[in-house]
Design a protein that fits this description.
- The protein is mainly beta and 231 residues long.
- The chain has a single domain, classed as Porin, CATH 2.40.160.20.
């Protein structure tokens, strides 16, 4: 009981009547497919991503914050280099690669005590909603041996779907304006078409074939970030 009382006194003494500050945060995260997304016939079971977010105090002296985030997840890539003879004795290098991506854009609303306390460990919860872009691209690059500029051909397919969910995280202060951010998110995604990484085949001429899968796109997301408060 004495330890609990001491912790409560320490927390209450750290409460400050202060104005919340804007925050920016570079983030790295891992998205793991769940439900129908996980059961789809693809060899990629986790997607690595990079992104950034910004949040702002919703009201002064309250734990409410709002903001937005954007992330880019790599969903797999297959590539092949071939030497091609055009029949006239000219040989050139052709690179054919196929890649998939997932790019969620979310608006956030969260309860975060960072607005009004200097306590070093700050849990928070929130929700988010937005859209996710699922892209598939077959990029063909022809590099001529005569030194002329390479030619690039992109065959892109993009699907846009809804995305929403909840988050729970923990800020750990490392200085007055820097905090580590550890976060778990569950995002419920709508139906989308995306690359089946296991179906990619690139022949000896650089011609690529692949299939698209179509399911709902629910994911669990584990995120680490560095929160910077802007004075």
């Amino acid at each position: 009981m004495k330890v609990l009382f001491f912790c409560l006194m320490l927390f209450s003494s750290s409460l400050l009547a202060q104005t919340g500050l804007p925050q920016i945060e570079p983030i790295i995260s891992l998205a793991i497919p769940i439900n129908d997304f996980a059961e789809a016939d693809t060899t990629e079971r986790a997607f690595f991503g990079l992104g950034a977010e910004a949040t702002f105090p919703f009201l002064d002296d309250t734990p409410l914050r709002w903001g937005a985030s954007f992330r880019y997840y790599w969903m797999g890539k297959e590539s092949r280099n071939v030497d091609v003879n055009n029949g006239s004795g000219d040989i050139y290098k052709l690179t054919s690669d196929v890649r998939g991506r997932m790019s969620p854009l979310h608006l956030h609303l969260r309860l975060d005590p960072m607005n009004y306390t200097d306590f070093p460990v700050l849990p928070y919860v929130g929700g988010f909603a937005g859209i996710s872009f699922f892209g598939t691209n077959n990029k063909i690059t022809v590099d001529y041996r005569d030194g002329s500029e390479p030619t690039i051909d992109n065959n892109r397919k993009v699907t846009v779907t809804s995305s929403y969910g909840f988050e729970a995280g923990l800020h750990i202060r490392v200085s007055d304006y820097l905090s580590l951010d550890f976060r778990y998110e569950r995002a419920y995604g709508g139906w989308a078409k995306y690359l089946d990484f296991g179906s990619i085949k690139i022949d000896s001429q650089g011609n690529a074939t692949y299939s698209l899968l179509e399911t709902r796109t629910d994911v669990e997301i584990f995120t680490i970030g560095l929160t910077v408060e802007l004075d």
